Amino acid sequence: xxxxxxxxxxxxxxxxxxxxxxxxxxxxxxxxxxxxxxxxxxxxxxxxxxxxxxxxxxxxxxxxxxxxxxxxxxxxxxxxxxxxxxxxxxxxxxxxxxxxxxxxxxxxxxxxxxxxxxxxxxxxxxxxxxxxxxxxxxxxxxxxxxxxxxxxxxxxxxxxxxxxxxxxxxxxxxxxxxxxxxxxxxxxxxxxxxxxxxxxxxxxxxxxxxxxxxxxxxxxxxxxxxxxxxxxxxxxxxxxxxxxxxxxxxxxxxxxxxxxxxxxxxxxxxxxxxxxxxxxxxxxxxxxxxxxxxxxxxxxxxxxxxxxxxxxxxxxxxxxxxxxxxxxxxxxxxxxxxxxxxxxxxxxxxxxxxxxxxxxxxxxxxx
Length: 367
Prior knowledge:
Layout: E1 9-14, H1 18-28, E2 33-38, H2 41-50, E3 54-60, H3 68-77, E4 85-90, H4 96-105, E5 109-112, H5 117-177, H6 180-183, H7 186-214, E6 223-226, H8 227-238, E7 244-248, E8 254-257, H9 259-275, E9 282-290, E10 294-301, H10 310-313, H11 333-343, E11 348-353, E12 357-365
Parallel strand pairs: 1-2, 1-3, 3-4, 4-5, 7-9
Antiparallel strand pairs: 6-8, 9-10, 10-12, 11-12
Helix pairs in contact: 2-3, 3-4, 5-7, 8-9, 9-11
Catalytic activity: ATP + protein L-histidine = ADP + protein N-phospho-L-histidine
Domain Response regulatory: 10-128
Pfam families: HATPase_c, HisKA, Response_reg
């Protein structure tokens, strides 16, 4: 079945009396509404299964053969139809047991005969707005999943292209470390060992990225991560300049998380804090607070900071701030950071003051 235009709201009217269907449709007609009519429960079920775009069902309770309660119950049992909003239209009394039975069967509201025109229209208008809000949300989720897949593919290509030259560099470093001139200089050998350690760490990270990108299902990839050790690894990998000091405040937790994702989050924030720092002595502090459902981490720097108007823009894809910074970003890193955090239910935000620095916060769900 072809997709309905985005502004069309399809309503299924179910009543065993045709005159009631005609009257109800006349009452609710609007330019953007399409009406389907069924005169029995069986006919209603067939129509729902054939039409993927029904946004609301107005369902008469008292019908022969199959009453409205049974129709609603069967719709609730089917995963494809259980989310359709149902309003029962009934002439039966408003006793509590009947109302409870209706809600248990899947109804979201009631209309009582004889119908009040204004009340009927108002309720249908509310469910129409709700339907379009749900459609917008579904589209946003689909768009996000599409972007995630594109980023995973991009990550795979980059990691794959980096792995071969990095392996060559590690081989060359191994030969250089064994050279007599290097062995004869403890200081030079120490530097070379540090470079080799970072190269091997980067190689392991790339291997993890390739493994992650190959797997469409990320469930079961969690492990116990000591965040303090993770920050140490990230710092070693980033080779901060001598004038940049990276410290932790308080005790950082040990969390159950996908290590690669959490490492990407911290690496994005710390590398940005290093890249854009404009002070003679750069200070970067990592800390955490324990909340009810989340750990609340932060990365604080004493860099150039930003205007308040930029604190939301900075997380947008390909968005770059209009300033005079020497370093020019791609506008991708912080958007990836935001997506990784929101993927597991957390939020991101930044507090900043021009000239004094920025503090980036993010929530990571506790397990």
